[in-house]
Amino acid sequence: MQHPMLVTAVRAARKAGDIINRSFARVNEITITAKAHNDFVTDVDQRAEAAIVEIIRRAYPEHGILAEEGSRITDKDFEWIIDPLDGTTNFIHGMPQLCVSIGIKHFDRLEHAVVYNPIHDELFTASRGAGAHLNDRRLRIAQRKDLDGALLGTGFPFRDFSYLDTYLATFKAFMLKTAGIRRPGSAALDLAYVAAGRYDGFWEFNLKPWDLAAGALLVQEAGGVATDFAGEQGFLENGNIVAGNLRVHAQMLHIISHEINKPKPE
Hints:
Elements: H1 4-24, E1 32-36, E2 39-42, H2 43-59, E3 64-67, E4 72-73, E5 78-86, H3 88-92, E6 99-106, E7 109-117, E8 122-127, E9 131-134, E10 137-138, E11 151-154, H4 164-177, E12 180-182, H5 187-195, E13 201-204, H6 209-221, E14 225-227, H7 235-238, E15 241-244, H8 246-261
Parallel strand pairs: 3-5, 11-12, 11-13
Antiparallel strand pairs: 1-2, 3-4, 5-6, 6-7, 7-8, 8-9, 9-10, 13-15, 14-15
Helix pairs in contact: 1-2, 4-8, 5-6
């Protein structure tokens, strides 16, 4: 039996997904605004967020909210961390790699997660201690023992290029040690894919809390490890994440740490 908060999160995600689905076939009619360089928002993002927030506020008016498109209610014991449309650039171009992401945090601990791809009707859910699921199927992370033959997911820098060289160094190191790297453009969905065993691991720099919260808990509840680049649980604060099973995560973390700490050329 699902926790009532997870039930509410699923209902909110499906409502947002309905809004996304109705607009996906007619993206030429949506309103697009540039928030910053290579960072876009559409009226669909905004309507999806409003629908999610309305459902949460009706069910849990005393809870806090942190959402990408500006909804904020702070200093609460419970906080709902929301990306109403992760993969907006994909959406604008008619690419179906996108999702609704909702994570629920109690004080400093993630408790519930929903990542929903409405285009493919794939609903990833997790509650702390109750495992992770895709629709009605229990998820287990891939059991690969090392990076040889592994398939990794990542995200390229697209707003802040100040760490581009460091990122490219990690990309090269992983490219030389694995079977391949994918960058579909939705970090929340990438992390859900790690939980589902579709990827063996994932890493990215400089993300936002709403990109990470739900996906990180999915990985952990599927039997995996998700940390920041120091091996700690600070990814919601610093935006850096590496995820995989225990062995793959350790090897990825070692390579990332080596590249980050490598002396820079004079």
